[in-house]
């Protein structure tokens, strides 16, 4: 295999020899160290292959032996390159392609973020863009230690970040902070007090002295479990209270929706703007126009890919919807439905850790608005630890 590759690089000629003294020609070729390969006898002569640079000597030997020699086939690199020698555009194009390829390899084409769960990927990419790491950034201008330091300052929720550039791709690896819960130190004495009004259902005391009983009504801030424990000998000591105090509580949520509202309404007129970003350079398309502050905007972006390869070319589209502000009058039923949706949303957010036993609501029209008041009977743990200050 290696011999074939070498012969192809040097170039070979297949020739045919006829007439004269063929045997003498072969002997002279051996004497002059001309290597003839794949030699075989044909009608009125022989056929073989010889290196391109030895063919001219071969012709001289054939003339001395009274033989006629002619080329039947040429193959190899020298003959391939000779074919395109006059086509200068091919060489110019090849050089141009090499320059473009080298230039593109000097830029970052794509950026990926890994390891984040709470911090949005878009937020991290925006910070990296501000620090000079994005599709189209020149790699030699990126100071990785400075980028890491800047990212740590701009992303307080990150405890560790790494920027790895391999080829034309950048990987951003992050590790998010785990917030430590705010708890009272177990060795410090504390009481458990009520966070809201309620009626005690049951008490689960793990440490400390209960200050209330089941069925008692308590007010917000009232002592539920004391951190002062009295022993058999009448002396007292301070302990870290622990336990749960379940009580029946009442919670209220109030929402109101005005029957007459000022709302933005689309007129149906849409203006579109396009731009393309290539290696960090943005090129707008179309005419610029003055946008109104009341317009509603929608942005779309599409990054160019070839298979799984991400290119540093992004197409952007901005749609601006013309809007006018007008007074919209709602009937009472529509306003009531909207208020109930707001009530349901707050219920899921504010009462998610409470057991709702019953719920009732009332609505009324007041000062040009639909007012909905929802009351909830809940069962919840109302105890909260409060450290005892020993002065």
Strand order of the largest sheet: 11-9-15-21-20
CATH topology of the largest domain: Ubiquitin-like (UB roll)
Annotation, overall tally of beta strands: 22
Sheet with most strands: 5 strands, antiparallel
Average pLDDT level:
84
CATH architecture of the largest domain: Roll
Please compute the radius of gyration using only Cα atoms.
44 Å
- Fraction in beta strands: over 45%
Query: What is the overall number of helices?
Result: 8
Which structural class do the helices and strands define?
Answer: alpha+beta
Q: Which residues form runs of ≥5 with pLDDT under 50?
A: none
Helix fraction, binned, reads: 10-25%
Distance N to C terminus? 94 Å
Order of helices and strands: HEHEEHEHHEHHEEEEEEEEEEEEEEHEEE
Write the layout of secondary structure elements.
Elements: H1 2-10, E1 12-18, H2 22-31, E2 37-42, E3 45-51, H3 55-64, E4 68-75, H4 77-83, H5 88-104, E5 110-114, H6 121-130, H7 144-154, E6 158-166, E7 169-176, E8 190-194, E9 198-207, E10 209-210, E11 217-218, E12 223-226, E13 228-230, E14 236-238, E15 242-258, E16 260-278, E17 281-285, E18 296-306, E19 309-329, H8 332-350, E20 355-366, E21 369-381, E22 383-387
Parallel strand pairs: 5-7
Antiparallel strand pairs: 1-3, 1-4, 2-3, 6-7, 8-12, 8-22, 9-11, 9-15, 10-12, 13-14, 15-21, 16-17, 16-19, 18-19, 20-21
């Amino acid at each position: 295999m290696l011999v074939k590759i070498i012969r192809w690089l040097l170039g070979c000629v297949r020739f045919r020899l006829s007439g004269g003294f063929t045997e003498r020609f072969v002997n002279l070729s051996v004497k002059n160290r001309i290597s003839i390969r794949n030699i075989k006898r044909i009608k009125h002569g022989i056929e073989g292959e010889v290196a391109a640079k030895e063919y001219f000597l071969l012709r001289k030997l054939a003339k001395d032996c009274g033989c006629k020699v002619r080329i039947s086939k040429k193959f190899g690199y020298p003959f391939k390159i000779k074919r395109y020698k006059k086509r200068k555009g091919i060489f110019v194009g090849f050089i141009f392609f090499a320059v473009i390829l080298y230039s593109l390899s000097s830029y970052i084409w794509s950026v990926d973020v890994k390891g984040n769960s709470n911090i949005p990927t878009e937020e991290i990419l925006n910070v990296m863009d501000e620090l000079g790491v994005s599709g189209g950034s020149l790699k030699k201008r990126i100071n990785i230690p400075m980028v890491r330091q800047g990212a740590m300052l701009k992303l307080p929720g990150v405890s560790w970040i790494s920027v790895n550039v391999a080829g034309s791709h950048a990987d951003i690896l992050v590790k998010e902070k785990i917030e430590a819960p705010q708890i009272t130190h177990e060795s410090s004495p504390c009481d458990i007090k009520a966070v809201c009004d309620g009626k005690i259902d049951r008490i689960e005391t793990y440490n400390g002295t209960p200050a209330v009983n089941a069925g008692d009504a308590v007010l917000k801030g009232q002592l539920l479990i004391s951190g002062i424990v009295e022993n058999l000998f009448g002396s007292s000591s301070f302990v870290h209270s622990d336990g749960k105090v379940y009580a029946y509580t009442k919670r209220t949520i109030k929402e109101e929706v005005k029957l007459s509202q000022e709302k933005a309404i689309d007129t149906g007129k849409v203006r579109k703007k396009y731009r393309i970003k290539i290696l960090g350079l943005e090129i707008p398309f179309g005419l610029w126009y003055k946008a109104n502050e009341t317009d509603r905007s929608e942005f779309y972006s599409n990054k160019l890919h070839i298979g799984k390869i991400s290119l540093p070319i992004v197409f952007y589209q901005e749609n601006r919807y013309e809007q006018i502000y007008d007074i919209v009058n709602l009937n009472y039923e529509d306003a009531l439905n909207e208020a109930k949706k707001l009530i349901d949303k707050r219920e899921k957010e504010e009462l998610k850790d409470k057991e709702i036993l019953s719920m009732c609501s009332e609505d009324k029209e007041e000062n040009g608005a639909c007012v909905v008041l929802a009351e909830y009977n809940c069962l919840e743990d109302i105890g909260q630890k409060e450290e005892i200050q020993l002065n």
